[in-house]
Structures are given as C-alpha cells and as structure tokens.
Specification:
This protein has 167 residues and is mostly helical. It is built from 6 helices and 2 strands. Helix 4 packs antiparallel against helix 5 and helix 5 packs antiparallel against helix 6.
C-alpha cells in the first residue's frame, strides 16, 4: 500500500511538473484572416463547470483564466451530497454524526479529484480535504492526503493552493 502511494506521488509530481509549463496549444489558424493572426493575445472561451467550487451560470462563457478556478470534472451527485450533509452539520443542534457525515462527503469528492491523475485537480482535492477536517479534525485519511498534496507542492517549490482555507 505504501509503495503504491509513493509510486502514485512520483507520477503525480512528474505530471504536475510537466503540466505546469507555460506553453499554449497551437490554435487552428486555417480559417483566420491576417488581421486576426497578429500577435494580439487571444481569449479562449471555455464553458463553465457547475459545482460547489464556485461555478457561474451555465449559459455564461468564461475565459481560460477564470476557468482555472473551477474543476474540469463535474461532480453533481457529490456536490448535492455535500450540500445536504453540510446543511445538517451547520444546523443548530448538529450532532457529531452530522459533522462526520459532512466530512465524509467532502472526502468522497476529494478522492475523485485526487484519484483522477490530473494535476490541475489536486488543488480542488486539497480544498475538500481541508473542509473535511473542519468538520472532523481527526479524519486520518483527509489529513494524510492533504499533507501529501502540500508536500508535493512544497517539494517542487510551487506555492501551495489556498483552496479550503476560506471561512
């Protein structure tokens, strides 16, 4: 189990390093006029992804810069589970079981992002692991995986995302 995690972390680190380059994919310029093919910066329009991570209205396109703040993977069932569990956990008279259920819901979605092997999703996993720990500070799985992600960012000299640190 430990060696599998270490292999996955090594693969993750390589993927994050290779995915962090600043090069942009080449645009298809076969139907672009000479005025459009100048060196002027181009905006790539990406449809938004609705999720609990702060999505916009589905009909409003966003630019690639703002799309980077939302996961590229939709998780509507897990988002609904989180909303329901969090409402119970925040309600007056919430029990420890309610708070643990909210933590478990966040860990379930974080595991989807964590296991997707897409470096751009790790910051969303990190945020959900942090949120889970707010509801269940003794959740060992959330703590261990959060620490692994933070360690990877630090080992590469990259800033650690602040996802999940909002109050």
């Amino acid at each position: 189990m430990r060696s599998t995690i270490l292999i996955a972390l090594g693969t993750l680190a390589l993927a994050v390093v290779s995915g962090c380059s600043t090069s942009q994919p080449a645009a298809n310029t076969s139907n672009v006029s000479s005025a459009q093919s100048s060196n002027a910066p181009q905006t790539v329009v990406v449809p938004p992804v609705a999720s609990a991570h702060g999505g916009g209205a589905a009909s409003t396109p966003t630019t690639s810069a703002s799309a980077a703040e939302k996961p590229s993977m939709a998780t509507p069932e897990l988002d609904a589970r989180i909303a329901k569990a969090e409402a119970k956990a925040k309600a007056p008279g919430a029990t420890d079981a309610d708070k643990k259920a909210a933590a478990a819901a966040y860990v379930a979605r974080a595991d989807v992002f964590y296991s997707a092997q897409q470096p751009m999703l790790y910051k969303f996993a990190l945020g959900d692991f942090r949120r889970a720990l707010r509801y269940d500070p003794r959740n060992g799985e959330a703590r261990a995986k959060m620490d692994e992600i933070v360690s990877i960012y630090q080992s590469m000299g990259k800033p650690v995302p602040t996802n999940g640190q909002e109050q």
